[in-house]
Amino acid sequence: MSLYSIVVPVYNSEHTLEELYRRIRTVFEETLQEDFEIILVDDSSRDNSFAVMEQLRAKDRRVKIIQMARNFGQHPALLCGFSHAKGDFIITMDDDLQHPPEEIPKLVHTMNERPDVDVIIAKYEGRKHNFIRRLGTRLSVYATSRMLGKDPSLEITSFRLIRRFIVEAILQTNTYLPQIGNLLVLTSNRIINVPVRHDARAYGKSGYSFSRLARDLIYDITAHTAFPLIVVRDIGICSFLLSILLSAWYLIRYFAFGVSVEGWTTLVLLLLGFSGLTLLSLGIIGMYLMNILNEAKKMPHYVTRREDIDD
What we know:
- The structure is a single chain.
- The protein is an alpha/beta fold.
- It has two domains: 3-206 and 301-308, Spore Coat Polysaccharide Biosynthesis Protein SpsA, Chain A (Alpha-Beta Complex), CATH 3.90.550.10; 227-297.
- It has ten helices and eight strands.
- It has helices at 17-32, 49-59, 74-84, 104-113, 131-148, 164-171, 180-187, 210-224, 227-257, 264-297, and strands spanning 3-10, 35-42, 63-68, 89-92, 119-125, 160-163, 191-197, 304-308.
- It has an eight-stranded mixed beta sheet with strand order 7-5-6-4-1-2-3-8, sandwiched between helices.
- Helix 5 (131-148) runs parallel beside helix 8.
- The longest helix is centred in the C-terminal third of the chain and has 34 residues, at 264-297.
- The two termini are 19 Å apart.
- The mean pLDDT is 82.
């Protein structure tokens, strides 16, 4: 019999935690008949989520609870949960009931049947996210496929089943703003998708706004690839070659026809274009320098304020 650690980042989920716990317990006690522990990591919620977590802990010692000192984000919360997980397998899922616990056996059975697989990631059937979230996901899938050499057909979601040695390898990394999906792809190429049901959000709305999705995508690009710098370099080479051709053209016009004010518009457009390109290049370089600075700081991924995890 294996031990499964279910790690759940919690943020403003006082209305769903009780049901989530009850459904997970039913799945493991009645369907899978396996040992389990639930690690709830409160990412500095603004509601009574931690109070509900304390009630669940008092009811069942298999529920371990941790409260972060501030809102660090989903991925640092997962790392915090990973560091306290004792299971042979680790499951990550959201706290909003969009990941049905009843779908966990699909992941478990597939892992048992596939000893050659290290990570199983749920692939949502009938995704219930809004348009912005779906668009952001598509862009992220495309970007990570290009950056990390990932199979573009492999979907990265937050509902996963991971072998313990992969989690231990991830915990050894110390990168700024870690992205669990990217770290999984960088750690193993034995990752597959399993189709699962995706339910509508029961309460509230997603914390992934368009600005946050865009910010995460920009960070992923500048943290894992030099693609923006390569694009600017290629534009610079093309601009240099174009400037040589224009110089030759204006020099010929000067000797053939003399000075003409007709080039004023061209001159202004060139100045504006190259000035904008210069500022864009400086901005991109600045983003890379900021990433390097943040990596050099070696700030902790998370700080725990309170925890109750002892058996």
